[in-house]
Design brief:
By secondary structure, this protein is of the alpha+beta class. It has three domains: 92 residues, Pseudouridine synthase; 136 residues, Pseudouridine synthase (2-Layer Sandwich); 61 residues, Archaeosine Trna-guanine Transglycosylase, Chain: A, domain 4, CATH 2.30.130.10. It is built from seven helices and 19 strands. The strands form four sheets. Strands 1, 2, 3, 4, 7, 10, 11, 12, 13 and 14 form a ten-stranded mixed beta sheet that branches. A five-stranded mixed beta sheet has the order 15-17-18-19-16. Strands 5-6 form a two-stranded antiparallel ribbon. The longest helix is centred in the first third of the chain and has 12 residues. The radius of gyration is 23 Å and the shape is globular. The mean pLDDT is 92.
């Protein structure tokens, strides 16, 4: 039986896309994949069509480490509209209720925001990509089906009110740094409930995902122009290394013999002089010729057990 080969180039690395508004994360992924002419790619954490900002896209061997970006902290800048509630919690939805928010003051709103810092419980939106029986919740919502959702713990590290514009529909500009699984639209809706006026997200921009910032990212228009000028291979200079998503993890360097054993799936002794970081979940492994091999877990008895290895 013949094996069907994937179309495109076998390249590995991480590209940081500055996603524009109006497109799904999957649509953005497919556009980027075609421009790079890559045979394997995946994004790390969806952004709503409304949202803009940094969307890391992993190619080839880098996809093996995308889970660590999915689990990383994120930060956002967003505009909340107070006094208007929508069925989706954002400006793409249908208005379900409206009230006059002109009585709200900067002090009242700032005090309400204070209550959302730190550990909180959050009920995921019905218009989120969270899955129920294999289907994202938003598909049920579009069919008018309400699924019971349990509150989930998330952590809000920072929540700053950057500007406030009073009025019948008051506008807030906020900065949020939060743990994985946090829904900004739910933060807006919950704030609206607390203030008694309803609220929704009218703008959302992701400023960081893990160690990656929007300042490092490239928009599709720039990528398209580079491709038209010099072709797919010219885009490779925009790729970050395969291990970029886990660059904050400690490094262990193995000699050729230990590296060969690890690549066979066997645990190896910690290299001499390596001081383990007991808070780190994984260790990045390099061969002594600077070749990245993958990640391993530190065992209680002083061994490195292979976890995710790259193809060599």
């Amino acid at each position: 039986m013949s094996v069907r080969r994937a179309r495109g180039r076998a390249l590995s690395g991480t590209f940081l896309l500055d996603k524009s508004t109006g497109m799904t994360s999957n649509h953005a992924l497919q556009r980027v994949k075609r421009l790079f002419d890559a045979n394997k790619a995946g994004h790390t954490g969806s952004l709503d069509p409304l949202a803009t900002g940094v969307l890391p896209i992993c190619f080839g061997e880098a996809t093996k480490f995308s889970q660590y970006l999915l689990e990383s902290d994120k930060s956002y800048r967003s505009t909340f509209s107070l006094g208007v509630q929508t069925d989706t919690g954002d400006c793409d939805g249908v208005v379900t209720d409206a009230s006059d928010a002109s009585a709200l003051t900067l002090e009242t709103v700032a005090a309400a925001i204070e209550t959302f810092r730190g550990p909180i419980e959050q009920v995921p939106s019905m218009y989120s990509a969270l899955k129920h029986r294999g289907q994202p919740l938003y598909k049920y919502a579009r069919q008018g089906v309400e699924i019971e959702r349990s509150a989930r713990p998330v952590y809000i590290y920072d929540y700053q009110l950057e500007s406030f514009t009073p009025g019948a529909t008051a506008l807030l500009e906020v900065y949020i740094k939060c743990s994985k699984g946090t829904y900004v639209r739910s933060l807006a809706e919950d704030l609206g409930v607390l203030l008694g006026c309803g609220a929704h997200v009218s703008r959302l921009h992701r400023t960081s995902a893990g160690a990656f910032s929007d300042h490092q990212s490239t928009c599709l228009e720039t990528l398209q122009a580079l491709h038209e000028d010099a072709g797919s291979a010219a885009l490779d200079r925009l790729l970050l290394p395969v291990d970029a998503a886990i660059a904050d993890r400690p490094v262990a360097i193995l000699d050729a013999r230990a590296a060969a054993l690890l690549l066979q799936g066997r645990a190896v002794l910690l290299p001499e002089g390596f001081i383990p970081d007991l808070e780190a979940d994984i260790v990045r492994i390099f061969r002594d010729d600077e070749k990245f091999l993958g990640v391993a877990k530190l065992t209680d008895d002083g061994y490195l057990a292979p976890s995710r290895l790259v193809s060599t």
